[in-house]
UniProtKB/TrEMBL annotation, chain A:
Protein name stated in the entry: UBC core domain-containing protein
GO MF, one annotated term: transferase activity
Residue positions of the active site: 87 (glycyl thioester intermediate)
GO cellular component: UBC13-MMS2 complex
Domain UBC core: 3-149
Keywords: ATP-binding, Nucleotide-binding, Transferase, Ubl conjugation pathway
UniProt record similarity statement: Belongs to the ubiquitin-conjugating enzyme family.
Gene3D superfamilies (alphabetical): Ubiquitin Conjugating Enzyme (3.10.110.10)
Annotated SUPFAM superfamilies: UBC-like
UniProtKB/TrEMBL annotation, chain B:
Composition bias, Acidic residues: 1-18, 25-35
One of the GO BP terms on file: protein ubiquitination
Keywords tagged on the record: Metal-binding, Repeat, Transferase, Ubl conjugation pathway, Zinc, Zinc-finger
UniProt EC number: 2.3.2.31
Gene source species: Tigriopus californicus
Catalytic activity entry: [E2 ubiquitin-conjugating enzyme]-S-ubiquitinyl-L-cysteine + [acceptor protein]-L-lysine = [E2 ubiquitin-conjugating enzyme]-L-cysteine + [acceptor protein]-N(6)-ubiquitinyl-L-lysine
Pfam family, one: Ariadne
Annotated protein name in UniProt: RBR-type E3 ubiquitin transferase
InterPro entries: Ariadne, ARIH1-like_UBL, E3_UB_ligase_RBR, IBR_dom, TRIAD_supradom, Znf_RING, Znf_RING/FYVE/PHD
Top-level taxon in the UniProt lineage: Eukaryota
Listed GO MF terms: ubiquitin protein ligase activity; zinc ion binding
The keyword Zinc-finger is annotated on this UniProt entry: yes
Location of region: Disordered: 1-63
């Protein structure tokens, strides 16, 4: 693991020692900067019961710049687009080197519990979420059942 | 894999701050000669110590202002711009006693309008003002600093231990190698440096660098200058800070020469020549090269036209015509006169000879019998007009370009003349006696520059009696300039050294006087409203 900054080594260790409840993040065997992430849909949310796969990558200048995170499992969510990209301020302009992988994962979990259709990435989803929340939530449940269960 | 005892390796990634015992020590005292202290005491306490280094000056021995007393303008180096900025901040600070970084951000928010800032500060909407400018009000700053800092739950307390873990690199370090702002979030100095550097260099941030901890506290100038050692980064920071100051200040303008860090400050705004220390001469009002006798609006228009029409000279060739419908350029590519416009959204059918629509030509594919039909005539007329306008433009443009081209050989001429001057000095002439040659080249270049812009002026000028006089002046200056140029470039080598001085002086004095006459006439015309501009090119 030559060349891997202490920060990444220690952060990974701590993440393995005290994992975030409901989330697992495991570094790839061949690339310590690449994490296989699995997030359980939070209880009480339309994503409950679903198991969502994500990928997380620590760029060269991490922690000066934010990790790159993307949903691999399809998800019906106003702040996540078709390609799985996530609209989350701490992944963009609000990133700070004092934040961690842990913070990012917690924020993503929180985003699943509380979608924010006023700051949308997927416009059609956000639109429906605002106009007809019942139907939007039903769609989210359907997608969860179709794509995020039994795998 | 690693255990905590390895953590005590605070040297391994600190290339430039590793040898420094603590950022709080004023190790930069030697820089204070050119140093501006913009940390005025109170804000220095939380951040970076005694306020020695503020926005430190990188360049020593900066010229003092006002090198040219005859003209009411100053060339300011980056340091002097900072000085002005600091004066401005101090002035506000003497009334409103809040941290200088906060004052600077507020002033920036109000585009450096001190009065506006004061007005808002003393109004009921003070709190709202702080919010709009995205700064923490100073009274809240105080409160925050008193709340015990959250040290990330790692259980390291500032007071209890002499070491703490940096939350960015996860190294455990002596407290003396860390820095915290008023909010009390400590990070190691090398992480701070890396963080601030990345904000400045990658994001171009200067006014709005926040503490990496989850808080809005802004990094102040003193801290930035203490932590950043790389002079490239420091310069960029200074430039970013001063940029908005200069941009907002109507009386200041950056020198437009590439990579020149200077700005020019005038007493009042007008179209006038200003010369930077880098020797670039430009118009204060519009930043273009000094363009007498044309006015700023016209030179702007001309430059834009030249950019837009750079292709025009290519399609003037006899083998192209414009489509009578969409004006796209059409090239005749065969013997057939039936043209179909290449523009996919037009596809007009027309006749190459008469430019009328093709349809009435019927099946006579190779000759045209409709040359005098009205429709065809109109199409030709309009084409004729645009051709004439183009010809006219090219006439002036060629002359303009010709002088521009000649000016590019300026340096050759100067070095040629320098050789001549050396030669003359070897023939017992004093240094001062041979300066006339350099002066001759100076004047030659000035004349070329003026001539170049007279063609822009002439292009936009409508004919009247005064414009004819102008053209006569232009011709005189053109001739005398060519004589001088020819003499300096060619004839001079054949001359007897003694004769040269008289001849050169006669010639350049004459040129100079013709130039004055021309400029005075144009300026008089401005005062007396003689000049009427052609309407076609002049909109807006
Ligand atoms: Zn650190
Ligand atoms: Zn802080
Ligand atoms: Zn300059
Ligand atoms: Zn101008
Ligand atoms: Zn056409
Ligand atoms: Zn015809």
């Amino acid at each position: 693991m030559a060349g891997l900054p202490r920060r990444i080594v220690k952060e990974t260790q701590r993440l393995m020692q005290e994992p975030v409840p409901g989330i697992s993040a495991i570094p790839d065997d061949s690339n310590a900067r690449y994490f296989h992430v699995v997030v359980a849909g939070p209880e009480g949310s339309p994503f409950e019961g679903g198991v969502f796969k994500l990928e997380l990558f620590l760029p060269e200048d991490y922690p000066m710049s934010a990790p790159k995170v993307r949903f691999i499992t399809k998800i019906y969510h106003p702040n996540i687009d078709k390609l799985g990209r996530i609209c989350l301020d701490i992944l963009k302009d609000k990133w700070s080197p004092a934040l961690q992988i842990r913070t990012v994962l917690l924020s993503i979990q929180a985003l699943l519990s509380a979608p924010n259709p006023d700051d949308p990435l997927a416009n059609d989803v956000a639109e429906l979420w605002k106009v007809n929340e019942v139907e939007a939530i039903r769609n989210a449940r359907d997608w969860t059942r179709t794509y995020a269960m039994g795998n | 894999m690693s255990s905590d005892d390895e953590d005590y390796l605070y040297d391994d990634d600190s290339d430039d701050s590793g040898n420094e015992s603590t950022v709080n020590q004023d190790e930069d005292d030697d820089n204070d000669d050119f140093g501006m202290d913009i940390g005025l005491g109170e804000e220095a306490s939380g951040s970076g110590g005694g306020g020695g280094g503020g926005l430190m000056m990188m360049v020593s021995g900066a010229d003092k202002k006002g090198s040219d007393h005859a003209h009411p303008y100053e060339v300011l180096s980056t340091e002097q711009i900072v000085e002005h900025m600091v004066d401005c901040i101090k002035e506000v600070n003497s009334v409103i006693q809040i941290p200088t970084t906060t004052v600077r951000i507020l002033l920036n928010h109000f585009k450096w309008d001190k009065e506006k800032l004061m007005e808002r500060y003393f109004s009921d909407s003070q709190e709202q003002m702080f919010a709009e400018a995205k700064v923490v009000p100073p009274y809240k700053l105080g409160a925050k600093a008193m709340v015990a800092p959250d040290l990330g739950g790692r259980g390291v307390s500032l007071s209890a231990k002499s070491t703490l873990e940096c939350e960015i690199c996860y190294l455990t370090l002596p407290k003396s190698l860390t820095t915290a702002l008023e909010c009390g979030h400590p990070y190691c100095n090398s992480c701070w440096t890396e963080y601030i550097t990345s904000k400045i260099m990658n994001e171009g941030a200067s006014q709005s660098i926040e503490c990496p901890g989850n808080c809005d506290i802004l990094v102040d100038d003193v801290t930035v200058m203490k932590l950043v050692k790389d002079s490239k980064v420091k310069l960029k920071y200074q430039h970013l800070i001063t940029n908005s100051f200069v941009d907002c200040n109507r009386l200041m303008r950056w020198c437009p020469a590439p990579d020149c860090p200077n700005a020019v400050k005038v007493q009042f705004v007008e179209s006038r020549p200003v010369k930077c220390r880098c020797s670039h001469l430009f118009c204060f009002a519009c930043s273009e090269n000094w363009h007498d006798p044309v006015r700023c609006v016209l030179i702007k228009r001309w430059i834009k036209k030249c950019d837009d029409d750079s292709e025009t000279s290519n399609w003037i060739s006899a083998n192209t015509k414009e489509c009578p419908k969409c004006k796209a350029t059409i090239e005749k590519d065969g013997g057939c006169n039936h043209m179909i416009c290449r523009n996919q959204s037009c596809r007009a059918d027309f006749c190459w000879v008469c430019l009328g629509p093709w349809e009435p030509h019927g099946s006579s594919w190779y000759n045209c019998n409709r040359y005098d039909e009205d429709e065809a005539k109109n199409a030709r007329d309009s084409q004729e007009k645009s051709r004439a306008a183009l010809q006219r433009y090219l006439f002036y443009c060629n002359r303009y370009m010709n002088h521009l081209q000649s000016l590019k050989f300026e340096n050759n001429l100067y070095s040629m003349v320098k050789d001549k001057m050396d030669e003359m000095q070897q023939h017992n002439m004093s240094w001062i006696e041979v300066q006339f040659l350099k002066k001759a080249v100076d004047i030659l270049c000035e004349c070329r520059r003026t001539l170049m812009y007279t063609y822009v002026f002439a292009y936009y000028l409508k004919r009247n009696n005064q414009s004819e006089l102008f053209e006569a002046n232009q011709k005189d200056l053109e001739n005398s300039t060519e004589h001088l140029s020819e003499y300096l470039e060619r004839d001079i080598s054949a001359e007897n050294l003694v004769d040269i001085k008289q001849k050169v002086q006669d010639k350049f004095r004459y040129c100079d006087s013709r130039r004055r006459v021309l400029l005075d006439h144009v300026h008089e015309g401005y005062d007396r409203d003689w000049w009427v501009y052609t309407s076609d090119d002049i909109t807006s």
